[in-house]
Amino acid sequence: MTRSNIALLVLIAAVAALPLFGGAYALRLGTIACLYAVLALSWNVVGGLAGYPSFATAAFFGYGAYAAGVLLGHGWPLWAAIAFATLSAFVAAAALGAVLLRLRGHYFAIASLSLAEVLRELVNNATDLTGGGMGLNIPLASGAGIMAEATFFFFAMWGVLLATALMAIIVGGSKLGFALACIRQNETASSMVGLNTTLYKAAAFGLSACFVSAAGGIYAAWVHYIDPSDVFDVLYSVKPIVMALMGGLGSPLGVACGAFLYLGLEEVVWRNYIQIHTGVLGLLIVLLLLFLPHGLSSLRPDRLWRRAKHV
Amino acid sequence: MNQSWVARRVRRSFPLSAAVLALGAQLSAASAEDVIRFGAPLPITGALAPEAVKQQQGYDLWAEQANKAGGVSVGGKKYKVQIVYTDYQSNTPRAVQATEQMISQDNVNFMFGAFGSGAAKAASTVSEKYKVPTLAATASSSQVYDQGYKYLFGTFTPNDTLTTPLTKIIKTKVPDVKKVAILARNDLFPLAIAQEMEKSAKAEGYEVVYSEKYSIGTLDHSAALSQIKSLAPQWIFVTGYTNDLLLVRKQMVDQQMKAPVVTMIAGPAYQEFIDALGPAAENVSSAAWWHPAEQYDGKDIFGTTANFVKLFKAKYNSEPDYGQASAALCGALFQIAIEKAGSLDRDKVRDELAKLDVVTFFGPVKFGANGQINSLDPPVFQIQGGKPVVLFPQAIKQGDLKIGVN
Amino acid sequence: MQAAQILINALVLGCLYACIAIGFSLVWGVLNVINLIHGSFIVLGAYLAFGLYNALHIPPWYAVIVAAPLFFVLGYLLQRLVLNRVITAPVLVTLTLTFGLDLILNNAMIYFFKADYRKLTLTPSLGSVSIFDVVVPVDRLIATAAALALTGLLYLLLRRSRIGRAIVAVRLDRDAAVLMGVNVPSIYAIAFGLGAALAGCAGVLMALIFPISPLTSSAYLGKAFVVCVLGGLGSVSGALAGGLLLALVEGVGSTFLGPSHATTLSFVLLIIFLVLRPQGLVGRKGFE
Description:
The complex is a heterotrimer of chains A (about 300), B (about 400) and C (about 290).
Chain A (H helix, E strand, L loop, with lengths): L2 H13 L2 H4 L2 H26 L7 H17 L4 H23 L4 H21 L1 H4 L5 E2 L8 H28 L1 H11 L1 H6 L4 H27 L1 E2 L1 H4 L3 H13 L4 H21 L4 H15 L9 H4 L7
Helix pairs in contact in A: 1-8, 1-14, 3-8, 3-11, 3-13, 3-14, 4-5, 4-6, 4-11, 4-13, 5-11, 8-9, 8-11, 9-11, 13-14
Chain B lengths: L2 H26 L6 E8 L6 H20 L3 E3 L2 E11 L4 H13 L5 E3 L3 H14 L4 E3 L15 E3 L5 H14 L5 E7 L2 H16 L3 E8 L7 H10 L3 E5 L2 H13 L6 E5 L5 H7 L6 E4 L17 H12 L5 H20 L4 H10 L1 E4 L2 E4 L13 E5 L2 E6 L14
Parallel strand pairs in B: 1-3, 1-4, 4-5, 5-6, 7-8, 7-9, 9-10, 10-11
Antiparallel strand pairs in B: 2-3, 11-14, 12-13, 14-15
Helix pairs in contact in B: 2-11, 3-4, 5-6, 8-9, 11-12
Chain C lengths: L1 H30 L6 H19 L3 H22 L9 H23 L14 E4 L2 E4 H23 L1 H11 L1 H6 L4 H26 L7 H15 L4 H22 L1 H18 L12
Antiparallel strand pairs in C: 1-2
C-alpha cells in the first residue's frame, strides 16, 4: 500500500466527517463531491491505467440511474436496485468492452461517446417503461426529515466512493493493473508476449462501469425525477476526464483530489459568473491542457520552465 | 510524476477551495430587513435561455409595480420585494440544487418554480421538504402535481384543458375532419399534451392515423412530414417549442402540404413565430393559457387585463404572451396571499394560497386539491391576417375558425 | 410516389450532410484532430449569413464568398497559436482541448447573440418545385448545388494545386512528407483553416434551410461525426458517400420505425461501422 493510497483513504475518511460540520446544503455539495470522485476514479481505470480515452461514463451513469429508477418504481428496496444496477452494468460493460476496446484512439473515443447517445435514444423511446422524454418519477424513499434524508444519501454516495477507491487501489497493485499498464505502453507488444489483452481490457471496462452505475442509481433515488437528457448528458463523460487531468492521470489520490478541486471551482464559477460560466469552464480546460499537462504536478518549479511534453 | 508532491500540493488546495466556497456563500447572503425575498431559479443559460428571459420580465414587472406602490403590506407594515435569480443552466439537477441553495443559503421567504414541467417537478421535492410555498408559473402537465405535495401551486391549467375545447370546436365547425396526425417532441410538456390530444381525438371519434415523436434537436422533419402527407389527414397536430414548430411549418410549406386544420402548440402564441413565418402562419390554430385580448377585471395589483398589457408594453415595448403573464401572476398571487395572511409565516401564506378564490388580470384563480389551478378556460386561437384571433371561450371570442391551411 | 419522395429527400439531405461534414473530415484525416469546434463554426457561419442578409441584403450564395476567407484566417490562427502546442499529444488531450474551446465559443455566441432561434427568411420566398409528384423546396436545391460546388472545389484543390498535394501527402504519411520537404506545421495550419472555411461556408448554406441558434451546434457536430465514420476520413468522396448513406438510413428508418428512432438508428449504424469497418465505405484501412 503506497503512501498515496493511504493518503487517499485518509482523505475519504475525512470527508465522512462532513455531517458534523455542515447543514443540508453542505451535505448536498458533499454528495456531489463524492459522486464526482466516483466518476473520476472509475474513469481512471480505463482512461488513466489502460490508456483508452473513454467517453462512456455518461452512458453507464444514465444506465444506472434508469435501471435503479425503474426498479424502485416497481417497489424494489434501494439496496437491491443499486446492487442490480451495479452487477448488470459490470456484465454488460465487460461484454461491450470486449467488442469496443478492439478500437483504438479516436475510434474508441467516438464509439464510447455514441454509446451514451444510443442508450439515451433507447430510453427516450421506451416510453412505457421509462417515461421516455417525460422523465421518470422515483418514489420518495421515506418521509424522513431534510437532514435525515440528506445524511442518508450522503453516506450512500460516500459508501460507493469508498468501494470505488478500494477497487482503484486494489487494481493498481494487482496483476490486472500491471497488465493495463503494459497495454497502455504498448498494446501490440503486450499481446505478443502472451498477455490476454481482451480479457484485461474487458475487465477494466466493466470495473469502470459498475460503480458509476451504482452512483447513478443513488443519484436517481436522491433527486426523485430523472429524464434522459439529464442523466445521459455528455458533460458527465467529459468532467471526469478534466478532473483526472487536473489531478494527474494514473494516481487514484490525484484523481480524487482533482474531482474535489473541480467541484470547488465549479461552485465558485457558477455563483459568480452566471452568464459566462460555461465559457469559464472551457477556458479552464484550455489553460489546463495547454499549460499543465501533468495536472497540478506541472506546477513544480523545475517543470514550469520546460516546454509542455506529454506522456 | 512525483506522487507525494502531487498529494501535498492538492491537499493544500482543498481547504482553499472550501474557504472559497464558504466565502461565496457569505457573499450571497444578504440582510433581510423589511424585504421579502423570492427565489427564482431560471435557465438563464442553455437550451431554455429564451424562456428564462420571458419569465424574468414577468417577475420584474410585478416587483417593480409592487415596490412602486410602497411594497407588500404585511400586517400593516410595508415590505419591499426582492427577487433573487439563479441560473440552473437548463439542467434539471442544477435546478434542484439551485432551489436548495436559495432556500437554505440565500434565505428566501418564498419560491417561484423552475421553468417547465420537468424542472418544476424535480425542484418541488426540495421546496416541499423545506415547507416553502412555491408557485410554478409554467408547469402545466398534471404529472407535476401528482406527488401529493402541499406547498406547490401552479398557474397553468392541465394539458387537457387545451386539447378538449379545441377538439370540440373542430368537431362542430369542420365536420369533414376524419383523420388526425400527431407529431410530438419527445420532451415532458410537448409529449404530455400530444398524449392528451390523442385521447381527446379518440373520444370525439377521430381516427388517429399517425402518432409519432421526434427527438429533441431534430434538424430535419422531411421524412416524418412526407409520411404524414401520404396519409392525407385532415387535421395535423404538432407540438414542440418555437424553433421546432418554425422548422416543421417551413418544411410543411416546402413539401406543399395542405390540410383543413393545422394546430401547433406552443409556438403560435409568440410574436416571433408569426414574424418568422409570415404568410405561412396563416390559419394555424393553437391554444394557450392566456391571451392579451382577455378582459378580466382583477383584484390584484395589475387590475384589468388591459392595464397589465399596457404596463408590460410600456416597460418592454412588446406585447406580453402567456409566459410573461403567468410569471407576473405568480408574483401578484403571492402578494394577495401574504396580505391576506398578514404575515410572512410560510404555513399561513400556504393556507391562504390554497384558499384563494379571486379574479385576476389572468382570469379567475382557484387551485385544486393537488395545487394546480382549475378555474380557467384557456383560450383557443387562430392566426388570421398575421394576428392571433381568439375563438374560445365565448366571453372573449373575437372571430370564427377559418378552414384551410396551405 | 412516396418512395420517390423519400429518395429525393434523402439525396438532397445527403448532400447537405456531406457539406457539413467535409471540413470535419479533412481536419480529422490530415491533422488527426477531432475538431469539436466544428459545429460552432457552422453556427457562426450561419449567423454571418443572417447578419449579412438582414443588414446588407446579401443573399447566402454570395455570402459564402465573404465567409470563406474570414473563417480560413480564424482557423489558421487557432491552429497555429493554440492547437499546434498539443498536436503531438494523445487523442485525449486534443479532444478535450477542442471541447473546451467549443465551450468558450458557444458561450460567447449565446452571450452576444442570445439563444433565441433566428430564421433567415428570403424575401421573396423561393417556393418549391414539383416534378412528377415529388416536391423539392428550391432553397434546399440551391444549398445542395452550392454544397456540391464547394466539395467539387475542394476536390480540385486537393488534386491539382501544390498545397493540395502537400495536404494529401501529409495525410498519407506524415513522416514521408517531412522527408519530401513539406513544411508540416504550415500544412497543418492551412488544412485546419480550410476545414474552418468549409464549416463557415456550410453554415452560410444551412442558414437558408435551418433555424439558427448556438444550441444547434451539437446537432451539426453529431451529424458530422456519423458521416465521417460511415464514409471514411479525409476524402471528398468519403464525405459524400457517408452523407448519402446517413440520409437514406434516416429517411427509411423514419418512415418504417418512426422519426424518434431515426437518431438511434444513425448512432447504432455508427457503432456497427466502427466495429466492423472503421475505415468507412470509401476510406483506406490503416488510418488510426
